[in-house]
Structure to design on (162 residues):
């Protein structure tokens, strides 16, 4: 049975960490991704073999500003739901710029820096597969974790869906 966390009465991170101790792969779908916060989970992902069926797959649906959301909605209405290559490239650059902004905000601690190095190694080792959802805003929070014998579902709903 899925569990719902509100981070008031039930905190997600400790439950997610306990569950990751006994799993071999995970699928996460999140609206936002905190690069420095990944350090709280990266050690568990590093224990997995990596590659298909033994990694963490992360789908990120990035936040858009209200003006960007309006432009996107008008474009979708005028053009249908298609996302052309030029727009996809521009939005991928924006995502990269948003991540760069995360890195330049504040002074990272030694633990932050170590976690960022670990994060940079994980996609190359096949332990983390990251995809960004660009078609429309995706404000999601879903954590699926799998053991050989069965799947474990952790569901976190912390905000309104858009």
């Amino acid at each position: 049975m899925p569990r719902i966390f509100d981070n008031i009465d039930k905190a997600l991170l400790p439950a997610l960490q306990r569950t990751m101790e006994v799993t071999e792969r995970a699928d996460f779908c999140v609206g936002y991704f905190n690069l420095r916060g990944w350090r709280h989970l990266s050690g568990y992902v590093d224990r997995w073999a990596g590659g298909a069926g033994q990694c963490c797959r992360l789908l990120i649906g990035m936040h858009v500003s209200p003006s960007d959301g309006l432009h996107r909605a008008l474009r979708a209405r005028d053009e249908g739901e298609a996302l052309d290559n030029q727009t996809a490239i521009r939005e991928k650059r924006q995502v990269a710029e948003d991540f760069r902004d995360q890195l330049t905000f504040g002074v990272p601690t030694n633990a932050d820096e170590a976690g960022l190095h670990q994060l940079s190694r994980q996609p190359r080792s096949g332990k983390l597969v990251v995809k960004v959802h660009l078609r429309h805003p995706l404000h999601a929070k879903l954590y699926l974790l799998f053991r050989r014998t069965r799947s474990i579902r952790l569901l976190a709903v912390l905000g309104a869906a858009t």
Summary: The domain at 3-156 is CATH 3.30.870 (Endonuclease; Chain A). The mean pLDDT is 79.
